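HUMAN: Quick job: go over this next protein and say how the chain folds.
***
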Amino acid sequence: MKRSRREDGAPQGVLPDWLRPSAWWVAPAILLALGVALLNDESGVRSWLQLRRDLGEASGRIAGLRTELERTRAEAESLREDRFAQERAIREDLLLARPGETLVRLGDDSASLRNP
């Protein structure tokens, strides 16, 4: 079987010795280079990984703030248009109760306030 030759005279399909599978040192060399890149502060890999973590945290905070913003907008709309919502908000803020109502606050030292 005769092999064809490239323009430079070398046989086609033949790898140089350093690229052959018998070159066992290639994989460890690549792993070593990756290890050095991860451990070296000046390589930028650590900074990149930290930035990815920060981005994930920021995305989570943004999602939470968007949810809170929508809830606040809905409450503001309710307060603009619903007289009952306005009264409820005022009574909650000022800790007021209508005559005959009992106001119960949880998590405070005073268990309940009564307005006869």
